[in-house]
Design brief:
Layout: H1 6-20, H2 27-38, H3 45-56, H4 63-74, H5 80-99, H6 109-117, H7 121-128, H8 137-147, E1 156-165, E2 170-171, H9 173-182, E3 192-199, E4 202-207, H10 216-229, E5 233-238, E6 242-244, H11 254-264, H12 274-284, E7 295-299, H13 308-321, E8 324-328, H14 343-348, E9 354-356, H15 361-370
Parallel strand pairs: 4-5, 4-7, 7-8, 8-9
Antiparallel strand pairs: 1-3, 2-3, 5-6
Helix pairs in contact: 1-2, 2-3, 5-6, 12-13
Length: 375
């Protein structure tokens, strides 16, 4: 890969070329150009052109001379700038192809050419629909990178309190009277009051027992993304007992946060006691108001070794304390005709508002898309 330190010198050289073309370009203008180019793709000529035109051109009359200098400096095949941009574009395409994981089957020569150009959108889409349990370590690493960029919008609710707005059903009489007095009694425009919108609490309860070993780390990565996307997010893990890991996930570096969370959970890859864990959550946290009006997402395969009556009682009390209960079961897969066979799922089913799979990245993206409408 070409030396990254050479690109500031390349941009400074372009400033000198503009001075030679008769443009008034100062040192501060060149620094602004370098700052703007650092936020864009240096191998994209369109980015370099518009960044320079926005920072180096002061008059409309200078645009023709700027265009001529740009073509001569960046587009002349004999110039060192054109050769450096070609190397940069080639290395960038290869790096993009390395991030986009191709399919497991060997492809043709044309497929390899597409990988060099970074045109692997179809393979990335196929990777999103591949079960976590069927992915190779390299594919799992690629999925974690993609998962870190999921745009998650937390659920919201309308409160009884109101605020001033552009539209609504109730007029804002107080503000209208103040506006009328400011205008010496003349009628003012209609002003309205809207109901305030607040974030709903989002509680993630993740099963990290041995039967969920293929999915637990990816669900934890999703929990980390959710925690850093919204303020009111609580995360718990359970195997044979419940552990709160919200503070561990507050670390800014994902790897450090996941490592601290794994150290806090002492029963990772152990047995499963869903009923006892949910009962602990209800008695210790839910009754205290943590999930009042919130959305509770339980990620488990339903293989419970505890007493089914304890699970049924905990789910019944939890359904009365929260707004919605969403259950992610990896065994559901992509089948719309899924019927639970595990005792834990059969006991919990009457109290579940929404059942999703959570076995691949596409199902987690589906959950992220459904959260804003769970109002």
């Amino acid at each position: 890969m070409p030396d990254e330190a050479a690109f500031p010198g390349l941009l400074v050289g372009f400033g000198q070329a503009l001075r030679g073309a008769g443009l008034s370009v100062g040192t501060g203008d060149v620094l602004s150009y370098c700052s703007a180019a650092s936020l864009l793709d240096p191998s994209d000529l369109a980015d370099l052109y518009w960044a320079g035109r926005a920072t180096l051109v002061r008059s409309k009359d200078d645009i023709p001379r700027y265009d001529a200098a740009f073509r001569q400096y960046f587009l002349d095949e004999a110039s060192s700038a054109a050769q450096m941009l070609f190397l940069r574009a080639t290395s960038s395409a290869q790096a993009q192809a390395a991030m986009a994981m191709p399919g497991t089957e060997p492809g043709t020569e044309s497929d390899e050419q597409e990988a060099v150009l970074g045109l692997m959108a179809s393979d990335v889409d196929a990777l999103k629909h591949r079960s976590f349990a069927a992915c190779t370590p390299d594919e799992l690493a690629a999925l974690r990178r993609i998962m870190a960029r999921i745009k998650l919008t937390p659920p919201r609710r309308r409160t009884r309190r109101t605020r001033s707005g552009q539209s609504g059903r109730v007029p804002d009489l107080r503000k209208m009277i103040r506006e009328s007095m400011r205008m010496h009694g003349d009628p003012a425009r209609l002003l309205w009051r809207q109901r305030r919108v607040r974030l709903r609490p989002l509680i993630l309860i993740l099963d990290v027992s041995g039967s969920m070993a293929d999915y637990s780390r990816h669900l934890l990565q999703f929990a980390y993304t959710a925690k850093h996307a919204a303020a009111k997010v609580e995360v718990f893990c359970f195997g044979t007992r419940l552990t709160r890991i919200t503070r561990a996930l507050e670390h800014r570096r994902p790897d450090s946060a996941l490592e601290q969370a794994a150290q806090a959970v002492v029963d990772w890859d152990g047995g499963t006691r869903i009923g006892a864990s949910l009962d602990t959550f209800v008695r210790r946290w839910a009754r205290g108001g943590m999930c009042r009006g919130g959305v509770v997402v339980i990620c488990s395969d339903g293989l419970d070794r505890g007493d089914p009556e304890v699970l049924a009682g905990a789910m019944e009390r939890l359904s009365r304390l929260c707004h919605r209960i969403v259950w992610l079961n990896p065994h559901k897969g992509s089948s719309p005709q899924f019927q639970p066979t595990a005792v834990g799922m059969m006991v919990a089913a009457p109290h579940i508002d929404l059942l999703l799979s959570g076995h691949d990245l596409a199902s987690l993206e589906e959950l992220a898309a459904l959260l804003p409408v769970l109002s």
